[in-house]
Amino acid sequence: MLLQRSHWHYWALLVVLFSLLGFLSAFESYASSYSAGRYNLNWWLALSWNLIGWNLWLLLAPPVLLLVQRYRLDRRDRLRALLVYVPAGVLFALAHSALLVFIHFYIIHGSDTLPAFLINKYYVLLSDFLTSAIIYVLILAFGHALDYYMRYREEELKSTRLEAQLVQSQLQALKMQLHPHFLFNTLHSISALQLEDVAAAQRMTARLGDFLRITLDNVNAQEVTLRREVEFLKCYLDIEHIRFGRRLTTDLRIPPETLDAEVPNLILQPIVENAIRHGIATRSAPGRINVSAWRENGTLRMRVQDNGPGLPAGTLKEGLGLANTRARLAQLYGSDGRLELSNAPEGGFVVTVGIPFNTNETSGGR
């Protein structure tokens, strides 16, 4: 809500503001009635008329602000909003004049003075109608300005949360991969290869360096191309292949037409790491991980499937990595970001990510 009932201090300020405007308007009307050495307008009538007129907007402003929330002047809905705003302005102005007459003449001063007013002072109602239309436009403008400001602050807060989650994901990825046990096994593999296959040891060292470089190169990126994400994933898998040898087989099926799609930075590596940890590392039998991507209408789908034991029925629970991935998807894409978990019919665990298919051109370079 642009103005909530719980913000009583705002309402109190509006009462003071409208009452002050009513007093000033009454003084202006009273002073302008001076002619032939006397004032031709009763001060108390002028004061009550203007105080009621201005403070009626305390009742009419909230529904006007609701219109702002319901019909925003976005590029796609601008015409529809204008088609609503114009007749609504006429109705609000008429409602203001009608309520003003009812309260002033039927509740406060009595209806016996109304006929004379309508005969001799009808132009006052016309003036009130035109003034009300102008105030209605001003409230619309204020509502849109406040709405844009609130949405800007919301996007700013959302961006801050995304940056914090991105840093957390990057630190988590480094922490997982530079865990002492992982680092020990990696260095042990490099050391052993130095005696058996120097070229392989050098390649392993280079891939570890590439892994760290890519992680740090994209430290400020919310999204990267799928091509970049796959490059990072290959560095990670090359390291894991050294660790597990023939126990680990991977298959990446990423069609060329999907490589330019924008994806969340570090979206695949935690999912693959989770599959290796729970689907491969705990078994002595050879394991396989399939990573695939495809475009389905306007959606990019990415799937990671292992041939491990899966999870018993009714125990599909998310760990910290998957929960963080789901939260990042929600922050970036709202309801358009999907994370689906399931056991494969042939055995193993499947994680599927669905996001809007955007390239750098279609997304405007996000």
Plain-language structure description:
The protein is α+β, with helices and mostly antiparallel strands and 366 residues long. It has two domains: 8-156, no CATH class; 178-356, Heat Shock Protein 90 (2-Layer Sandwich), CATH 3.30.565.10. Helices cover 63% and strands 13% of the residues. It has eleven helices and nine strands. Strands 4-6-7-9-8 form a five-stranded mixed beta sheet, covered by helices on one side. Strands 1-2 form a two-stranded antiparallel ribbon. A two-stranded antiparallel ribbon has the order 3-5.
What is the strand and helix layout of this fold?
Layout: H1 8-32, E1 34-35, E2 38-39, H2 43-55, H3 57-70, H4 78-108, H5 114-120, H6 122-177, H7 180-196, H8 198-217, E3 223-225, H9 226-244, E4 248-253, E5 262-264, H10 268-280, E6 287-296, E7 299-306, H11 320-333, E8 338-343, E9 349-356
Parallel strand pairs: 4-6
Antiparallel strand pairs: 1-2, 3-5, 6-7, 7-9, 8-9
